Amino acid sequence: MNDNLTHTAVPPVICARQVLKSFKGQEVLRGVDLTIEQGEVACLIGSSGSGKSTFLRCVNHLEKIDGGALYVDGEMVGYRRVGNKLHELRDVEIAARRARIGMVFQRFNLFGHMTALQNVAEAPMQVKGESREEATEHARQLLVRVGLGHRLDAYPRQLSGGQQQRVAIARALAMKPRLMLFDEPTSALDPELVGEVLDVIRDLASENMTMLIVTHEMAFAREVASRIAFMDQGVVVEVGEPDMLFEQPRHPRTREFLSKMISPVGPRQ
Question: Cβ neighbours of residue 102 under 8 Å, at least 6 residues apart?
């Protein structure tokens, strides 16, 4: 297998081939195969413990895979191949590649001593070397974009959970990523705040941002995704377009999962 996927003019944004990952002898990913094309919005669904969040962290090399191969934009994540051997990239190389991937976590992880504007502007200055003026103006535009133009000078403690998560999304976008990863971005929010975060993600989807979203929001996944992948026990069991997967799932485990997540009157919110 080559280090780069050069056999197509435009390689997939994500290409996973039999990805393996274990923690202390416990297999979490047991051979994940998944391809995400440019401009695609893919949602990962499945029960807790199925490996969804672990796979997301592997895409960003926050976790090292134990086997298989994982590529982003045609480049092997975290490694380069020299002959028949894999060599882990240096930290500076990993950081450079990671800068092209935006990630939004369950918890907001904002700097408590910085305002919303400072939180968003910090990484472009520190990582990309942008001037303070350039980074601050771009941060302001992004906060306006996510509906927080009136809270530029607010500190995280002064913001609701939904507002903090929107700042976190703006912070990820500030690095001008080619790929956005969302790890259950609404799971830490009160129910009445979920909609404001999902609205921001909907807007990104309408702009053809490539996204991989781990979510338990079935109605949202069906609405926004171009494809949905169902994971169970560390593998991708089934992938399909939303209507097909929700209405005619092929795999018994997918049917079982969806029957518990979707009530007779509609998807669980």
Answer: 172, 173, 175, 177, 179, 180, 181
Question: Is the dihedral angle over the CA atoms 165, 208, 55, 9 positive or is it negative?
Answer: negative
Residue 269 near residue 195 (C-beta atoms within 8 A): no
3, 80 contact by CB (below 8 A): yes
How far is 162 from 149, CA to CA, in rounded Å?
Answer: 14
Give the pairing type, strands 211-214 and 179-183. Answer: parallel
- The pTM for the full model equals 0.90
Reported as a single tens digit per residue, the pLDDT across 122-166 is: 999 998 899 999 999 999 999 999 999 999 999 999 999 999 999
Secondary structure of the chain as H, E, C letters = CCCECCCCCCCCCEEEEEEEEEECCEEEEEEEEEEECCCCEEEEECCCCCCHHHHHHHHCCCCCCCEEEEEECCEECCEEEECCEEEECCHHHHHHHHCCEEEECCCCCCCCCCCHHHHHHHHHHHHHCCCHHHHHHHHHHHHHHCCCHHHCCCCHHHCCHHHHHHHHHHHHHCCCCCEEEEECCCCCCCHHHHHHHHHHHHHHHHCCCCEEEECCCHHHHHHHCCEEEEEECCEEEEEECHHHHHHCCCCHHHHHHHHHHEECCEECC
What is the amino acid identity at position 76?
M
Token duo for residue 80: 């380069």
Which phi and psi angles does 99 have, rounded to 5°?
-65, -20
Q: Are 136 and 121 in contact (CB under 8 A)?
A: yes
